[in-house]
Structure formats: structure tokens, C-alpha cells
Write a structure and sequence with these properties.
- By secondary structure, the protein is an alpha/beta fold.
- Helices cover 37% and strands 24% of the residues.
- Strands 4, 5, 8, 9, 10, 11, 12, 13 and 14 form a nine-stranded mixed sheet that branches. A three-stranded mixed sheet has the order 1-2-3, covered by helices on one side.
- Helix 7 runs parallel beside helix 8 (224-232).
- It is elongated, with a radius of gyration of 28 Å.
- Bound molecules: adenosine-5'-triphosphate and magnesium ion (MG).
- Adenosine-5'-triphosphate is lined by residues 111, 114-120, 142, 145, 147, 220, 272-273, 308, 310-311, 314-315, 318, 332.
């Protein structure tokens, strides 16, 4: 008796995808059934390459088809679904880059260690670029100490719209914080893979709209989270913030090494808290030593983008939510503007 194709398909209807718990036939995973005498060849399209359940699926299909009247031999060929086939089952996939589609330049700000003024630099760079007439957004990528909303005077929480998160805005700068992921008062204790997955999903879901610059304040140090971010979005380059003293140097070296090893360009180094001009006398004090930024820039052949003095206005601007670079008063504001110009030039020449 010839084997009937209908009978094979009937048998396959009883084989479920172990994960989705629906029949392979209903899921559209049966890509072909060929019959030659008593031999049957079934092509099964897996939902993803390297599906961990593929041997189970193969076995189940073999068993089911072998049980069909007249079948003496079964061959199961496994292929992988196309993205269109997958979309039919799971709905259209969210383009992981959907949120940053209209962003021209993404620039990350990193540091080898905490407390060197990374967030201050990120916020003031954003403010200075805004001052140059650009549309700017800033992403707080620091899950463990989200400071950007405070430094930009934002208190409300972002809302969602059609599966996307809408950034908040103050001083004409769009802001989103990964703190949104955690919710208020929830201690952020995620580690490793969980953080990475959350960050990736989060990055794709923020609806920035059209921006000339998106500045990302990376988590401090050279951990997984920083790397995940620069690998998840098309970052044009990283600015590394440091302070002048010797002990900061090894951290910077490690940070630069890490990004370089991952093919992320280093746009330059910003030295923060470079000196203090004593009010009244104008005497310059190099509280944290001197020359660190210069040395690193030379050693790694990257530009020293600027040296930012210690200024009470910088700290006050951070505390009261109006970055000093917005007002444009004082030495630090002037240096932030210079850095913004340097970034602008680099991006224009890299187009
Ligand atoms: N140039 C400066 N002059 C005066 N105060 C500064 C300067 N740079 C940073 N600060 C102050 O130092 C503190 C730490 O800065 P900031 O939060 O930017 O550091 P960070 O590197 O982002 O720290 P963390 O690693 O905790 O995220 C803040 O209160 C900030 O206002
Ligand atoms: Mg910070």
C-alpha cells in the first residue's frame, strides 16, 4: 500500500513543539513532506537555529511518521525558519534598533572607576551640544546609581506608548534612565546575564525620535553592563573621563583596553577636577596632581578633549538640575563647550 501524504500530515498534527505546546503543523514548522514508496522525508523548520530541543523534535517526528501505515523509513531534515516565517508565529519582531533609528550619533561616556565626574561630564556635554543647536538626548546607563534625572531636574517617571518608552524632557534635552527598569525604591541587584538582557531590551524600546546626539552615561568601571551597552547600540565612540592623579591611570588603561578590544573607537579623554582656581586670589591649585590626562592621551594616541576645573558651580549645577554648561558661565562651562566642538568636528569629519 502506498503511503498517503494526508496520513503523514495527520500523524504530524499530533507532534507538538515541546516549548510552544502546539502542533508542528499548526505552527507552520513542517516545510515539506516527500514520499518515495515506503520512505518518507520530512523537513522541519525550527523556530531558531541551534534550538535546544531539536533532537527531541526530530525523535518525535520520526516516531510519529514511523507509526503511519506502510512507512518503513523516515528521514527528518531540520532547517531554520526565515524571519518572515517566525513573524507569522510570534508576530513581527521588534527591531532592536527601532528606538535609535533616527539618532545620528551615539556617544558613550565611560570611566575606569566611580566618582570621577563621568555623569557630570555626560550631562554637561549634552547641554553644551544643545547649546550648539543640536537635538540631544541622554541615556542614564548606570543601573546602580542613576543620577542623570537629578542632574537635569527631572522628577516624573517615563510613560509608555505602544510598547515603547517615551523619554522625558527638560532644558530641551531628552532623558531616559535605566532606573525606569527597576521602579522606584526597588534595590537594583541584577547581575550578569540578567542585566545584559534587560539593558538590551530597554535600549531597543526607548523612542528617542530624531536626535543629532545621544549621549550615554555608562555604568562606572569596566564591567559587563558597560560593554553590553556599547555592543547593543551603534556607538560612534567612547569618551573616557579621568582625574589627574596617578592611581586613576591604571583604571583608565583598563577601560581603554576593553573598548579597543571590542572595536569601539575612543574619541578622547576628558580630565576632570584638573585644578582649582582659588576664588579671589586666582591661584591655581592642582589638588589631584597633574598630567594624568595628558599622559594617557599620549600613551593611547587619543586626543585630550579638555581639562575641567573644580568649580562649585559645577557641583551646584548638578545638585539643582541645571547643568553649568547650559548657563555658559565660568571656566568649566567654557571647557565643556570646547569639548562639544571637538566632538562635533569629529562626527562631521567621520560622516
Ligand atoms: N569639575 C567639578 N567641579 C566640582 N564638582 C564636581 C566636578 N565634577 C564632578 N563634581 C561633583 O562630584 C560628584 C561626583 O560626580 P559625578 O556624579 O559626575 O561622578 P560619577 O563619575 O558619575 O560618579 P559615579 O561613579 O558614582 O556615577 C558630584 O557631586 C558632582 O557634582
Ligand atoms: Mg555617575
Amino acid at each position: 500500500m502506498a503511503v498517503s501524504k494526508d496520513a503523514v500530515i495527520e500523524a504530524l498534527k499530533k507532534v507538538n513543539d515541546p516549548e510552544l505546546n502546539k502542533s508542528l503543523v499548526d505552527l507552520g514548522m513542517i516545510d515539506g513532506v516527500e514520499i518515495a514508496g515506503s520512505a518518507v522525508k520530512v523537513t522541519v523548520a525550527l523556530t531558531m537555529a541551534g534550538c535546544p530541543l531539536k533532537s527531541k523534535i526530530k525523535e518525535d517526528v520520526e516516531k510519529a511518521v514511523m507509526a503511519v501505515d506502510g512507512v518503513e523509513d523516515v528521514e527528518v531534515v531540520l532547517t531554520t525558519m526565515t524571519s518572515e516565517q517566525r513573524a507569522r508565529i510570534f508576530g513581527p519582531e521588534l527591531d532592536p534598533m527601532e528606538g535609535v533609528k533616527e539618532v545620528s550619533h551615539i556617544i558613550a561616556v565611560a570611566s575606569g572607576k566611580g566618582g570621577v565626574g563621568k555623569t557630570t561630564v555626560a550631562v554637561n556635554l549634552a547641554a553644551a551640544l544643545k547649546g550648539l543647536g543640536y537635538e540631544v538626548g541622554i541615556l542614564d546607563g548606570d543601573l546602580h546609581g542613576p543620577d542623570i534625572p537629578i542632574m537635569l531636574g527631572i522628577e516624573e517617571r517615563p510613560v509608555g506608548s505602544q510598547g515603547m518608552l517615551l523619554p522625558l524632557e527638560n532644558h530641551g534635552i531628552k532623558v531616559m534612565s535605566t532606573a525606569t527598569l527597576a521602579g522606584e525604591g526597588v534595590p537594583i541587584v541584577w547581575r550578569g546575564p540578567l542585566v545584559n538582557k534587560a539593558i538590551k531590551e530597554f535600549l531597543g524600546k526607548v523612542k528617542w525620535g530624531r536626535l543629532d546626539y545621544l549621549i550615554i552615561d555608562l555604568p562606572p568601571g569596566t564591567g559587563d553592563a558597560a560593554l553590553t551597552i556599547v555592543k547593543s547600540v551603534p556607538v560612534k565612540g567612547v569618551i573616557v573621563v579621568t582625574t589627574p592623579q596617578k592611581v586613576a591611570m591604571s583604571d583608565v588603561r583598563r577601560a581603554i583596553g576593553l573598548f579597543k578590544a571590542n572595536n569601539t573607537p575612543i574619541l578622547g579623554i576628558v580630565e576632570n577636577m584638573s585644578y582649582l582656581k582659588v576664588p579671589g586670589t586666582g591661584e591655581v591649585m592642582e589638588i589631584f596632581g597633574s598630567g594624568g590626562g595628558d599622559k594617557m592621551a599620549k600613551a593611547f594616541k587619543v586626543p585630550l578633549l579638555g581639562k575641567i576645573p573644580m568649580e562649585s558651580q559645577v557641583r551646584e549645577g548638578g545638585d539643582n538640575g541645571t547643568p553649568v554648561a547650559l548657563k555658559g558661565e565660568g571656566e568649566a562651562a567654557r571647557v565643556f563647550k570646547e569639548i562639544a566642538h571637538a566632538v562635533e568636528n569629529m562626527m562631521n569629519s567621520s560622516k
